[in-house]
Amino acid sequence: MKGALIGCGFFAQNQLHAWAEIPGAGIVALCDTDEAKLAETARRFGIERTYRDAAAMLEAETLDFVDIATTVPSHRPLVELAARMRLHVICQKPFAETMEDARAMVAAVEGAGRVLMVHENFRWQSAVRRAIDTVRGGAIGEPFFGRVSFRSGYDVFSGQPYLAEGERFIIEDLGIHILDIARAFFGDVDRLAATTRRVNPKIRGEDVATMLLSHAGGVTSVVDCSYATKRVPDTFPQSLVEIDGTDGTLRLDAGYRLTIQARGEESVVDVSPPLLSWAERPWHNIQESVRTIQQHFVDCIGAGREPETSGRDNLKTLALVEAAYRSAATGETVRPGDL
Ligand code: NAD
Ligand code: 89Y
């Protein structure tokens, strides 16, 4: 499969490294409005066909898919452009700025009969995936309580300066992943209540969020996120998980330590992610999941299946983000299904 990547910034470098390792798929053309980033990325990955304009690229190239690695304001026009060209699409998170945009993007690609996957990669991290598979396999019985937690003081602003500038920060940027992990464990959400705070005075948006979720299947979960947590050693970018089930408990603790206690037995496993040749700590956890999710996209197209993290699926994660902001602003519990 021949693909083109749009947006040659901070995170796209990981996507390009991962594409180079995926059999049967490759990136043949690059696009960025920023000439310097485009040239540097083209040189680093040896990709000769480069464009400053996405429409011109899609007209000129013969492609199967596009990988959109720009920030959110450009997502809707780029996804709709790709749909018009009848291409399969991967789009980075946050998928869209509004639910209306997101629904239109899903409709555009589905209307073209192509596959749309959101690059919602945290549930594809191998440690998280192992925990998801363990719970789905019934190892602790039926879950009734969960906590998915991401607390760090890591400086994300030096690599991604735009994160300090937006009115919204942690829920939209990072909480979106943690909410998605909660959905992967416990299913759809009926009600959500949230509080937010800004601790770091140098940024504009909230850097702490605490969310209480009532899942349709009966689980109550807490999703808590912070970029204001001064902790040594810092756990960035680990998502920590606690689940109580009818037959036992699962804990994914700091240091990628997975503990399962059930039916009188205990297992403690080191589920540290592999360090891929191009990866660097502590990002290796996220970097590995990039390769996994891109492989999933290729596999799904080959098999004619909808990706687990499809555009349609992501509407439900995006609704949790919107519900959290609305709840924090109004003090009310919000039904994501109403949004
Ligand atoms: P960035 O600003 O470093 O890079 C974005 C690039 O897109 C820039 O080079 C910009 O010039 C280019 N661009 C913007 N609009 C364009 C357009 N219309 N056509 C062509 N090029 C265009 O941003 P980043 O930090 O790489 O983040 C990109 C996206 O990746 C964001 O949505 C972010 O949330 C997401 N992200 C995801 C993860 C993850 O783990 N999934 C991690 C980090 C960032
Ligand atoms: O942008 C964010 C993401 O998606 O994962 C971590 C991050 O890079 C900073 O919060």
Describe what this molecule looks like in 3D:
- By secondary structure, the chain is of the alpha/beta class.
- It has 2 domains: 2-114, Rossmann fold; 123-279 and 311-338, Dihydrodipicolinate Reductase, domain 2 (2-Layer Sandwich).
- Helix content is 35%, strand content 25%.
- It has helices spanning 12-19, 35-45, 54-60, 75-84, 99-111, 126-136, 170-186, 284-303, 311-330, and strands at 2-6, 26-31, 49-51, 65-68, 88-92, 116-119, 143-151, 189-197, 208-215, 220-226, 240-245, 248-253, 257-262, 265-270.
- β5, α5 (99-111) and β6 form a beta-alpha-beta unit.
- α5 packs antiparallel against α9 (311-330) and α7 (170-186) packs across α9.
- The mean pLDDT is 98.
- The structure holds nicotinamide-adenine-dinucleotide and (3R,4R)-3,4-dihydroxy-4-(hydroxymethyl)oxolan-2-one.
- Nicotinamide-adenine-dinucleotide (NAD) binds at residues 6-12, 31-34, 37, 54, 69-72, 74, 92-93, 119, 121, 160, 173, 286.
